[in-house]
Input
Amino acid sequence: MNFEFTGSNTAENYANSIMVFRLAESLLLQAEACVGLGNADKATTLLNRVRGRANASLYPANGYESLSQAIFYERGKELMGKDIISLISCVPSGS
Output
C-alpha cells in the first residue's frame, strides 16, 4: 500500500487510500444515537456487545445511573490512550 499523497485526484490514488476506524467506537456511536431516538433496547444490545468482548459485566449490572452515562464511560475506557498524539496536535499553541 502507498500512503504517500501525490497531490493528484486520480482513481489510482483513491485505490491506495484506506480508512481505519475502531469497531467499538462505531458501535458506541450507534448506541448513543439509539438512546437519542428512544430505542434503549438496541442501545443496550450494542453497549453489551462492546462490553462482552472485553469480558466486562453487562449493562445494567455496572452501577451507572443511566444508559447514556454508561455509554459515555464505556467510550472513555475504549479510547483511553488512543490517538493521544492526534489530540495533542489539535490543542491551540497560542500563536
